# Entry
Amino acid sequence: MRYFPLFLDLRGRTVVIVGGGTIAERKLDLVREAGPRLVVVAPHVTPRLARLAANGALEHRARAFEPADLDGARFVIAATDDRDVNRTVADAAEARGIPANVVDDLELATAILPAVVDRSPIVVAISTQGTTPALARHVRERVESLVDESFGRLAAFCERWRGTIKARVADLGARRRLYDELLRGPVAELVRRRREPEADALLADALDCADQDARVALRPRGSVVLVGAGPGDPGLLTLNALRALQSADVVLHDRLVSAEILRLARREAELVEVGKSGDKSRGHSVTQTRIHELLIEHARAGRRVVRLKGGDPFVFGRGGEELEALRAAGIEFEVVPGVTAALACGAYAGIPLTHREHSGSLRIVTAHCRESIDATDWKGLADARETLAVYMGVALLGTLTRELIRHGRSPATPIALIENGSRPDQRVFVGTLREAEALASRERIGSPALLVVGDVATCATRLHWFGAPPVGAAAPVGVPARSAA
Ligand code: SAH
# Structure
């Protein structure tokens, strides 16, 4: 380690920045967060720095640097593009014993500015010791996703309780154990979920009990996070989904969830496929009731369970049923939404789901078995100005399209079939309602696939950008088949 990491109190102390360009501006923005008195020495400055000077946010000395500028300074940043000037600054700093950051010059610099993740009061500073700043930024992005803003609130919570805990738990070892449990267990969970009053009550009760009892209440309990994994592309996971995966003890996942996403789970996490592919033809290896039992068993054993579902857990995902079962069993849960197939397939196939000219609304529907086909409100689906996103529709495509046509949707209505949306093997087919079934069997379209019905489907021909271009044009390029619809 060449540079020793250190946090400096700069409040009200003088920081001198030599140079008035955009780099100086950037450095200034960094240190400004710490509330120093700022002095900028440069013959010319950017308009923004000039404005800050005019507002009194900094003192601008509009001339060349003089060593005396550093008298009384706590820290200096040399941000000019003139190495001789930077060297003069570094020498003057050295003579006064002031650390100097010299932009892009490790030889002259005695201090370097880290990449910072600010979750005040928690601050993480990252450095590659000046060698590869881009890598430091990369690491910062990782840390940012793991140390979310809830850590700031957690730190504030601990700060608020510190005095009480110290008074109540005198023994240092016991106190350390208490903090360990507090940060891993239900108290921290409650704070993360913005339920501070409950966290306060839990901790207050625990501190009122005898030592041993106190710890039982605070000990980590199992809980379930119902997570939407999106359609397949790991880039479509939310940060919350990633965090849940990275702190999971066990992941119960559907078959629909892609292998790349499962690889993002914590390495020690147990992965259990509960095999609901969302497609009857592939068979359900685990019943819904058994899934409920598994969720409850794992959570009761004190594990952090992630229930990972394709797309969004609340869109044809039976997420609601699973939460009902958990609530009945008294198990804590949270929900992380995911990008549902309709949105993802639309985006990755170049099909806007609503469009000022072609479609004023979107309906998300499914017809995956006889009973649901029979119960479908076909009249409601026949509106030519509405886009339909049909989930689990491929197996019964023939019935589906015939019913739509019988109830008044034009046979010439454009459709698109998107197989494996957002995945490397995505395939998109465009055609008309009339030919959809033949198209699907000719092209052997498999699961998962989404059917989009409506004029917007023709946009795929012009707006595709991902994977192979769509196969089969419903209408001449540039002209949606409106007149036919
Ligand atoms: N909860 C999921 C849907 C589960 S139902 C979601 O919100 O997306 C399963 C159906 O979703 C599949 O039959 C298919 O119609 C659709 N689907 C899911 N992922 C898909 C993908 N990557 N490409 C195309 N369709 C997909």
Q: What stands out?
A: The chain has four domains: 14-113, 150-218, 223-339, 342-463. The pocket of S-adenosyl-L-homocysteine is lined by residues 231-232, 256, 278-279, 309-312, 315-317, 340-341, 345, 391-392, 418, 420-423, 447-450 (CB under 6 Å). The longest strand covers residues 73-78. The longest helix spans residues 150-168.
